[in-house]
Design goal:
By secondary structure, the protein is of the alpha+beta class. Helix content is about 60%, strand content about 10%. Strands 2-1-3-4 form a four-stranded mixed sheet, covered by helices on one side.
Amino acid sequence: MDEEVKLLGAWASSFSYRVVWALKLKGIKYDYEEEDLVNKSEALLRNNPIHKKIPVLVHAGKPVAESMVILEYIEEVWPQTPLLPQDPHQRALARFWIKFGEDKSAEFFKLFQTVGEEQERATEEARELLKILEARALEGRKFFNGHKIGLTDIAFGWIACWLDVLEEAVGVKLLDADSLPKLQAWIENFREDPVIKENLPNRDKLLAYYNYRREMFIEAATSRID
């Protein structure tokens, strides 16, 4: 299909990069529009009137919102270079781990947004979730889907490319290479893929952004305590 494809996104958003990676891996040409999330554009409000959030994919004038919904849409509309396994059971397993990640990822961002005992609890929960991925999800494979990047890898891509920034901004260590060697190997494999490597935000800029956000969350949490 050759209808116009447009992505409304934000440079610091791992959810936007999910869509970028999927489009790039499939060789789909698209136009990108950077959104100011403080002063949201008319196009964003029109194309995602319910949540008013990025990313939004606009294909032939029709909007699709929510990053994982967009990824499923991309997989169905452009079946070349499939990102889900062909085997029905393996495809179901891929979707299971994607849902697991979607359900549990809030714990990682909770530790970024909290302080004190609440942050400590979120940190321990996040470590336990990483241990589950290490023990159950990869099973000795190079990628979650096998020998090449698939939707599950894209869904967890923020761990490979954003987690160390969050760790540095918060001042905690979640992913220890010695205790989580499979996950560490997956991170290195994912980041070294040419498509991923060429489509990542600048780390220094990203760290500065999350340091700023972290200060805002600390100030808000401290004011609630006071």
